[in-house]
Amino acid sequence: MSTVTKTVKFLITRQDTPESAPYKEEFEVPYRPGMNVISALQEIQRNPVNSGGGGTAPVCWESNCLEEVCGACSMVINGKPRQACAALVDKLEQPISVAPMSTFPVVRDLVIDRSRMFRALKKVKAWIPIDGTYDLGPGPRMAEKKRQWAYELSKCMTCGVCVEACPNVNDKTNFIGPAAISQVRLFNSHPTGEMNKDERLDALMEDDGIEGCGNSQNCVRSCPKGIPLTTSIAEMNKETTKRMFKRWLSV
Questions:
Q1: How many CB atoms lie within 10 A of CB 57?
Q2: Cα(77)–Cα(54) distance, rounded to whole angstroms?
Q3: Do 18 and 109 contact (CB within 8 A), yes or no?
Q4: Do residues 98 and 120 both lie within one domain?
Q5: Is the pLDDT at 3 greater than 60, yes or no?
Q6: What is the pLDDT, as a whole number, of residue 98?
Q7: CATH number for the domain including 98?
Q8: Nearest Cα to 104, choosing from 184, 162, 157?
Q9: How many domains, in total, are found in the chain?
Q10: Where would I find the 4Fe-4S ferredoxin-type domain in this sequence (predicted)?
Q11: Same domain, yes or no, for 194 and 182?
Q12: Both 135 and 101 in a single domain?
């Protein structure tokens, strides 16, 4: 007696080069209990044959940790930007549509160029600059309430999901995006990082800074790590306003 193998249908948006037009290709992969979108893409890589039986090039995508920590496997799954490693097939409506995030330039297929996010982080100096490589000893202790907030903000994995979900980040604007704004709050709250506090706030006060936020709150709803992004934006709005008045008074 022949047995019918259960399969899962995928409709994947593909693009051969950064300049070429996108197109859709359908695949059917054997179902396995507990499989996620990444495991399905791996199956397509092992056997690159589309639903019509034609051989095709393996789908290109990015992934690393496979446990929702690195942020590399961000893509749009059934219309929602999210992590492919955490997208379980059993919880997705079929056919499962998979596409690259549209806010970022496509390199190939599901691989995108997140340079926009990294430029934003550079602009706000999202790090703690320390001169020298010698041991400075333990730094100042943080108040527990501040430490708890900092921990929540530090969960950001630069996945780009909040930027993709934000309607104010697109090819017609240079809005810095919610992730960079939240990182300003994180590093300005650090006892050592706050020595560059005004520099970061000044960066947010430029034309492509915090004023570009339209308060849609898509970012906080879509963040896979549950980071309170809108709370950070509200706090940075307050801090940049105070900074603006201080600059006026110092003139």
A1: 11
A2: 24
A3: no
A4: no
A5: no
A6: 98
A7: 3.10.20.30
A8: 162
A9: 2
A10: 147-175
A11: yes
A12: no
Which CB contacts under 8 angstroms, 24+ apart, belong to 18-21? 18/105, 18/106, 18/107, 18/108
Question: Does one domain contain both 140 and 214?
Answer: yes
The answer to whether residue 205 sits within a structural domain is yes
- Total Cβ atoms within 10 A of residue 167: 10
What is the residue range of 226's domain?
A: 115-250
Condensed to tens digits (0 to 9), the pLDDT of residues 113-135 reads: 999 999 999 999 999 887 776 77
Please tell me the predicted confidence (pLDDT) of residue 157.
95
**Boundary residue ending a domain (87, 112, 137):** 112
Average of per-residue pLDDT across 175-190: 95
Q: Which residue has the tokens 């530090």?
A: 154
pLDDT given at position 39: 96
Whether 2 is covered by a domain: the verdict is no
80 is written with which tokens?
């929602």
User: Tokens standing for 53?
Assistant: 């039986």
Residue 41 sits in the same domain as residue 121: no
pLDDT, residue 1, reads: 44
Q: Is 142 exposed, middle or buried (0-12, 13-18, 19+ CB in 10 A)?
A: middle
Q: Distance (Å, rounded) from C-alpha 83 to C-alpha 225? A: 10
Nearest to 97 by CA among 167, 46, 27: 27
Whether 1 is in a domain gets the answer no
